[in-house]
Design brief:
about 80 residues; alpha+beta; YefM-like fold; 3-stranded mixed β-sheet; 1 helix
Length: about 80
Protein backbone atom coordinates (compact mmCIF):
# COMPACT_ATOMS: atom_id res chain seq x y z
CA UNK A 1 0.00 0.00 0.00
CA UNK A 2 1.35 3.45 -0.93
CA UNK A 3 1.89 5.90 1.88
CA UNK A 4 -0.19 9.05 2.04
CA UNK A 5 1.64 12.20 0.88
CA UNK A 6 2.59 14.76 3.52
CA UNK A 7 0.47 17.91 3.56
CA UNK A 8 1.72 21.40 4.39
CA UNK A 9 0.07 24.79 4.40
CA UNK A 10 1.45 27.40 2.00
CA UNK A 11 2.79 29.34 4.99
CA UNK A 12 4.69 26.30 6.34
CA UNK A 13 6.04 25.55 2.87
CA UNK A 14 7.19 29.13 2.37
CA UNK A 15 9.13 29.05 5.63
CA UNK A 16 10.78 25.66 4.97
CA UNK A 17 10.74 25.24 1.18
CA UNK A 18 14.45 24.34 0.75
CA UNK A 19 14.27 21.71 3.50
CA UNK A 20 11.02 20.30 2.07
CA UNK A 21 12.58 20.00 -1.40
CA UNK A 22 15.60 18.20 0.05
CA UNK A 23 13.32 15.83 2.00
CA UNK A 24 11.26 15.04 -1.12
CA UNK A 25 14.44 14.30 -3.09
CA UNK A 26 15.82 12.02 -0.37
CA UNK A 27 12.64 10.19 0.65
CA UNK A 28 11.03 10.15 -2.85
CA UNK A 29 7.67 10.89 -1.12
CA UNK A 30 5.45 13.66 -2.54
CA UNK A 31 4.30 16.68 -0.53
CA UNK A 32 1.00 18.48 -1.09
CA UNK A 33 0.92 22.21 -0.40
CA UNK A 34 -2.50 23.62 0.45
CA UNK A 35 -3.88 27.12 0.66
CA UNK A 36 -6.89 27.78 2.88
CA UNK A 37 -7.36 24.03 3.30
CA UNK A 38 -7.54 23.25 -0.43
CA UNK A 39 -4.74 21.39 -2.22
CA UNK A 40 -2.78 23.80 -4.39
CA UNK A 41 0.31 21.99 -5.69
CA UNK A 42 1.98 18.62 -5.38
CA UNK A 43 5.76 18.47 -5.08
CA UNK A 44 7.20 15.24 -6.45
CA UNK A 45 10.80 14.15 -6.93
CA UNK A 46 12.26 14.71 -10.38
CA UNK A 47 13.29 11.71 -12.44
CA UNK A 48 17.01 11.25 -12.22
CA UNK A 49 18.30 11.01 -15.78
CA UNK A 50 21.89 10.41 -16.62
CA UNK A 51 23.46 13.02 -18.88
CA UNK A 52 24.04 11.92 -22.45
CA UNK A 53 27.76 11.33 -23.01
CA UNK A 54 29.25 13.44 -25.78
CA UNK A 55 31.53 10.71 -27.11
CA UNK A 56 29.68 7.88 -28.79
CA UNK A 57 26.11 9.14 -28.28
CA UNK A 58 25.24 8.44 -31.95
CA UNK A 59 26.72 4.95 -31.99
CA UNK A 60 24.54 2.61 -34.01
CA UNK A 61 22.41 5.39 -35.50
CA UNK A 62 24.08 5.42 -38.96
CA UNK A 63 24.63 2.86 -41.65
CA UNK A 64 27.47 3.00 -44.19
CA UNK A 65 26.30 2.07 -47.66
CA UNK A 66 28.95 1.66 -50.34
CA UNK A 67 32.51 2.92 -50.49
CA UNK A 68 33.12 6.09 -48.48
CA UNK A 69 36.87 6.32 -49.23
CA UNK A 70 37.11 6.30 -53.04
CA UNK A 71 36.34 9.46 -55.03
CA UNK A 72 32.96 9.87 -56.68
CA UNK A 73 33.01 8.37 -60.20
CA UNK A 74 30.76 11.17 -61.46
CA UNK A 75 32.89 14.29 -61.16
CA UNK A 76 31.04 17.58 -61.34
CA UNK A 77 32.15 21.12 -61.84
CA UNK A 78 31.33 23.27 -58.85
CA UNK A 79 31.80 26.54 -60.76
CA UNK A 80 28.84 26.17 -63.12
Amino acid sequence: MASKPTELSATEFKATCLKVMDDVRKSRKPVIVSKRGKPLVKIVPADEKRPVPLFGYMKGSMKIVGDVVSPDPEMWDSEQ
